[in-house]
Structure to design on (248 residues):
């Protein structure tokens, strides 16, 4: 994770110095994200997250995702990109003896095709992604809707969506192989694909022209295929975030 943070910070410096040439809008955020792990015996993850957001005519960077627009107008956008999936499991970090006997699960990089549209009734987003690192060879698809309410310098954006994860993805991150079962005593498990609906709310406060605060909460209702895994000990995964943003 440390190398990722350095890469994001370096990218932010490049964009900051090259903004006049690139055009578009640039912001840098420093925040903290916390999520109780869905894996048994794992502590809550609390991570400082420097994030870069850049919105240009053709290129964009948004946190873990960077890409290019194939088509874009004032309301719609079609894009391709690459994104980091910050999902992983380190067996040595678990407090559960059986979980310590399992193999690690690693972060992967996804190639993404996405579409978004903004209307007076809210925003709709569709994404289809596939692992390009050979880590899981999995696929993900996401459909989400959000609506922003504004009152002066404050904004509140509730939303909802559904995340589909393929059997390959679920098997890599939540399955238990024959050899792992023999070592750990956990039953062998090979999940199918599944749907995980989620709710999300984000809030923002524009303190000045350049500075703003943000906070977010996401509740992911894990699919049956995930929560039935012997590796998992919860039905809902909550993700909390907050921080400060500077817009150039």
């Amino acid at each position: 994770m440390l190398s990722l943070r350095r890469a994001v910070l370096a990218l932010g410096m490049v964009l900051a110095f090259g903004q006049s040439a690139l055009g578009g809008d640039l912001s840098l955020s420093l925040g903290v994200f916390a999520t109780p792990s869905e894996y048994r015996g794992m502590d809550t993850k609390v991570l400082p997250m420097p994030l870069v957001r850049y919105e240009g005519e053709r290129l964009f960077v948004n946190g873990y995702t960077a890409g290019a627009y194939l088509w874009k107008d004032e309301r719609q956008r079609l894009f391709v990109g690459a994104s980091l999936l910050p999902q992983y499991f380190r067996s040595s970090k678990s407090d559960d003896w059986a979980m310590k006997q399992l193999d690690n699960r690693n972060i992967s990089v996804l190639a993404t095709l996405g579409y978004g549209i903004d209307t007076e009734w809210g925003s709709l987003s569709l994404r289809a992604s596939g692992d390009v690192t050979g880590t899981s060879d999995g696929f993900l698809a996401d459909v989400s809707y959000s609506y922003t309410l504004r009152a002066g310098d404050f904004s509140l954006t509730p939303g909802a969506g559904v995340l589909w994860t393929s059997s390959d993805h679920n098997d890599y991150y939540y399955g238990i192989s024959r050899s792992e079962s023999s070592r750990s005593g956990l039953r062998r498990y090979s999940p199918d694909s599944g749907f995980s609906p989620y709710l999300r709310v984000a809030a923002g406060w524009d303190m000045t022209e350049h500075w703003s605060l943000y906070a977010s909460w996401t509740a992911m209702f894990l699919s049956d295929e995930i929560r039935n895994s012997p590796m998992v000990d919860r039905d809902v995964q909550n993700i909390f975030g907050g921080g400060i943003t500077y817009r150039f």
Residues 2-247 form a domain with the Porin fold (CATH 2.40.160.40). Residues 2-22 form the longest helix (21 residues).
